[in-house]
Each structure stands twice: as C-alpha cells, then as structure tokens.
Design a protein that fits this description.
The complex is a heterodimer.
Chain A (H helix, E strand, L loop, with lengths): L16 E5 L6 H8 L22 H5 L1 E4 L11 H9 L8 H7 L15 H13 L5 E5 L7 H16 L3 E6 L2 H7 L2 E6 L2 E6 L1 H5 L13 E6 L15 E6 L2 E6 L3 H14 L5 E6 L2 H9 L5
Parallel strand pairs in A: 1-4, 1-5, 2-3, 3-4
Antiparallel strand pairs in A: 5-6, 7-9, 7-10, 8-9
Chain B lengths: L2 H6 L7 H18 L1 H20 L10 H31 L2 H7 L3 H28 L11 H25 L2 H18 L11 H7 L3 H15 L4 H21 L4
Helix pairs in contact in B: 2-6, 3-4, 3-6, 4-6, 4-7, 4-8, 4-10, 5-6, 6-7, 7-10, 7-11, 10-11
Classes of the chains: A alpha/beta, B mainly alpha.
C-alpha cells in the first residue's frame, strides 16, 4: 500500500478560506480527494458536515461543490447546456444565468469545452462547482491557467462566497494565492502537515521572534564576496551569503539594525550593488520549514 | 450577499429518478450527435442488412434471407451501442476526469452507470425503429409473438454488452478501449454467431460461439423472430455474462 499522505490533520470552518499549501506531489490533491470521497483512504478519519465522505450519499454530495484540477468537463459539451444539465441534479440549484453573467461565461457560450482556453475552462469548472449552491466548496489549484483579469474575478467571487458563510478549502502551490485568499493555511510537505496558522502567524514563524510581535523582514543585498558581518547585527538576525556576493539578512530587523549595517559599509568602504528590503513572504516560511523551494 | 441568503436555499439533491433520467437523456443526445457513433450504430448495421439480403449466406434456414438477417442485425445494433459506443465514450470520459467530476455531484457513481445503461436502451429503441422501417419494405415478416421475447432478450443483451464495455473502458487506456472494442465488434460481428448463425461458421468456432454473448444473443433473437419462442439457455448465458462482467467492472474499474 502506497502511503501518499500520512500525517495530515486539518480543520476547515464555515465562512473561512482554508488553504493547503505545498509543492507539486506533496499530497494536497490526495488529501482533498479523500475528503471528497473520490479516493478510498486506508486509514484515518474524515468528517465533512458531520458525515464520512467515504460512505455518504447524494445528500452530502449536494451540499459540497468540487472543482477538480483537470476540470472534469466533457470535451464535446457546450458551457451553458452543460451547466443546465448539472443544475438539474439539484433540487434547488443557483440560477445558471446569474453564474454565467458573474463569471463571464457568455463570451464563449457557443464554444465546446475542448476549444476553451485554460482560464475559460477554470471559470466554467468553478461555475459547475457552485451551481448546486453548496455549503462547502473544494477548489483544487483554482488559479491554474487564469489570466490576471479572470484571476481577479475568481478571487472576488471567492471572497464574496466566504462572506456569505461558505466554507472554502483550496489547494495551491502559489504563495500569492494563499497570501491573498486564505484565512488559515496548512503547509503540506511529503504527505504531512508541517506548519499551520493564519497567514500573519506563519509569517512571524521564526524562532527568534515567535515570542514578540515584530514583523520579520528580509534584506537582500549584493556586495563583494566573502564579507564577515559577525557582530554587526544582533545575534537573532542571521546573515548568510547565499551565493558569492549575494547576502540575505532575515529576522526582526529594526531601523537601528539598518543603521548599524550601513555604518559598517561606510566604515569599510563597501558600496552595495543592490539592496532590497521586504516583509517576509510565505515563500520564505515555506523554504525555512521544508528546506526546499516551492517551485 | 448575506449569510442567511446563502444558507436559506441550501443544497439538496434532485430525486434519484430525475437524476438518472437526466443523465440518460444527456448521454443519449451526446451519442446521437457523435458522427462516428452514428455510423457504427446505424449505417454499418444497415449495410450489413443489405449485404445479407443480396448474398446467399443465409439461404437454407427455412425462411427468407431477410427474416433470418434482421434479428441478427438487431443484435448487432445492441453490440454497437452498448459495447463499442458506450465503451469508447466512457473510456474518454474517464481520461478527461468527467467520471470523477460527475461522481462528486448528487448523480454519483451509481447514478452515472444507471444513466449510461438508460442511454444505451434509449438509443437502441431508435435503432430498432430505423431497422424495422428499412426491413419491412424489404419484406421482413416478424411474427407478432416474436416481439415480446425478442425485445426482452435484446434489452438483456444490451445490458450484458454495456457491462463488458464498461469493464474494458474502466481498466485500460482509452486508445486501447477504442482498439479493443472496435476489433471485437468486427470479429464478433463476422465470426461471433451474431448475424451469421453458428452452423455457417468454421467448425472450430461452432461449439464456442453459443457461449459468447454475441452468439447467445444472435441465436436467441433468431429464435424469437423466426419462431416466436424464448431461448432460455441463451438468456441464461447472457445473464451470466452480465453478472460476471458487472462484478469484474465493480472490482477493477478505475475512476481516474
């Protein structure tokens, strides 16, 4: 028995967006497919709206909307008849016309699914997931293939659905998606969840500042290789030369720290080739935790 | 948008019957819109019918060529739609994730399969109508007592072939499904006892074809429409194929 996922434990709330963040192959899709009842799990337990998705019937399925990674829409179908067909599976579906207008599906209403662009397919798949007016919505990589405008459209809709009380669970390998959409993030790596929290909790997740409230920032600068910054900055702030001549200082940097660093440069006649200061991103957190780049 | 507005009309499934009927209708229309499927389902069986009435293959059975040919052609129609047509359609639906998506909707896996069987039976009704309309002017004279056993066995055969088609579609790649179901359609069509009675086949094949779904259905259809009788043995063989293929499909069908 292949254990793709072994040690994932998570909880999603109504009115919240819960994100499963991880690299490709981390086990995100397997996890939510078990929750959708699409895969049989060999152990563990899952409760969705109080029921076991592995054994439940049409009642549970009518309360849960699913958007699969590959869409799962028949290639020869046309968007609107397809939505009407799926709507017929529910006793009280949402209005097809309203969803068509909202997601801009009317611009390609006469095109078969086979000929739609990636973004158009994603929007149609989202409409198909929402047509039953679900309480819980699963989105597997929702922004895959979306152009910037569609992405904005989809993100606005997700925010609205959350405000209306829907529980939304999404998987993504895009930090930006998680940072913009998620109320709560689970970081999944090699089949287990390795960290969790709100985005701001995760961003502060640094041993040195966990107790405090300072925001972690990252300073990246280029200078001659081989410089030794020992004693220039407080011990809690690590400075490392990631490749020859490229330095990264990460931690709860203060204005005083910046002054110390630039004073040291002045004293040693060092003029950096470039420098940039940024708030820590989920990307840095992910790198810290899993020891690998998410892409 | 407010919270109560979203929860007031919260999700509930349509009734099981409605879901199955909808899926059956949707799949029937999809099949009828597919040109290749129509060739397989209608054009080739009609060509075979004409071929059998202008050649002496079916002489010497104590009935006119057309009376011997039509029951086998109806059986061939069932194999076209249920085995080859539905097999290929399901194989590609599986490739594109359609089966997975539909099984997350209230339709579910059971509803999806019921819808597919329904679609096969609906298309088969149209095929029977077309073949009858073509065969009657050519001199087909079915006994009134032949319709009840004939159509019942045809439905049973269609269910058996659907189970076989789904078994292939659910276990191999869609390209392989395409090759296997088309090749078997030709082999069983020519040598499987479906349109040409076992007696006219090579000696080697004669004993075996009675146990094939094609041979059993062809034989039973000819008995029904030539003598108005129900061939119980053939019905049993078809039932056995349905159970075996159905159980194997349940056991080995891969949804993704």
């Amino acid at each position: 028995m292949l254990r793709v996922v072994n040690g994932v434990s998570l909880m999603a709330e109504r009115g919240q967006v819960t994100a499963l963040l991880g690299a490709n192959g981390a086990g995100k899709t397997t996890t939510i497919e078990c929750a959708q009842g699409l895969q049989k799990r060999s152990g563990g337990s899952i409760s969705l709206l109080g029921q076991d998705p592995g054994r439940s019937g049409a009642d549970l399925r009518s309360r849960v909307g699913v958007m699969l990674q590959d869409g799962g829409l028949p290639p020869s179908a046309r968007p609107i008849p397809l939505l009407r067909h799926i709507a017929g599976m529910y006793a009280r579906p949402r209005s097809v016309d309203e969803l068509v207008e909202r997601l801009g599906l009317d611009t390609f209403a006469r095109t078969s699914v086979r000929r739609l662009s990636g973004g158009q397919k994603q929007r149609l798949a989202l409409a198909a997931a929402l047509i039953g007016n679900p309480e819980v919505l699963f989105l597997d990589e929702p922004s895959a293939g979306l152009d910037p405008q569609s992405r904005q459209l989809v993100f606005e809709l997700i925010s609205e659905l959350r405000a209306a009380g829907m529980g939304i669970i999404l998987t993504t390998h895009l930090m930006d998606d998680a940072q913009r959409l998620a109320d709560y993030v689970y970081i999944i790596d090699a089949g287990r969840n390795v960290a969790e929290g709100t985005v701001s909790q995760l961003l502060q997740r640094d041993p040195a500042v966990e107790a405090g409230t300072d925001h972690v920032r990252t300073l990246v600068f280029e200078a001659p290789p081989g410089l030794d910054f020992t004693g220039v900055l407080p011990d809690a702030i690590a400075v490392s030369e990631t490749r020859a001549g490229s330095y990264v200082a990460s931690g709860a940097l203060t204005p005083r720290d910046l002054a110390s660093l630039t004073a040291w440069w002045a004293a040693h006649g060092v003029m950096p080739g470039s420098m940039s200061l940024a708030a820590r991103s989920l990307e840095d957190v992910f790198l810290d935790i899993s020891g690998k780049d998410i892409r | 948008m407010t919270a109560p507005a979203a929860t007031a009309a919260q999700g509930a499934p349509a009734t099981l019957l409605r879901r199955i009927l909808l899926q059956g209708k949707y799949e029937s229309l999809t099949m009828l819109r597919n040109g290749e499927q129509l060739i397989l389902a209608v054009v080739l069986p009609l060509l075979a019918l004409i071929g059998l009435t202008v050649t002496p293959f079916l002489d010497g059975f104590g009935a006119s060529r057309i009376n011997v040919a039509v029951p086998g052609i109806l059986a061939l129609c069932a194999m076209s739609t249920a085995f080859t047509g539905q097999g290929i359609a399901t194989g590609f639906d599986r490739r594109y994730g359609v089966l997975r998506f539909l099984s997350t909707t209230p339709l579910g896996r059971e509803g999806l399969i019921a819808g597919k069987v329904l679609a096969v039976l609906a298309v088969l009704c149209l095929q029977v109508a077309v073949v009858t309309l073509v065969a009657l002017p050519l001199g087909w004279q079915p006994p009134a007592s032949g319709w009840l056993p004939g159509l019942s066995l045809l439905a049973l055969g269609a269910v058996a072939f659907t189970a076989l088609g789904l078994l292939v579609a659910g276990t191999v790649r869609p390209e392989a499904t395409l090759a296997i179901t088309n090749l078997l359609w030709i082999l069983l069509g020519a040598l499987g006892g479906i349109v040409i009675p076992a007696e006219r086949l090579p000696a080697l094949a004669q004993g075996a074809v009675h146990y094939l779904p094609s041979g059993a259905l062809g034989e039973a259809m000819r008995e029904a429409f030539l003598h108005g009788s129900l061939n119980g043995g053939a019905a049993l063989i078809l039932l056995l194929w349905t159970v075996l293929a159905g159980a194997a499909a349940i056991r080995w069908f891969k949804w993704n």
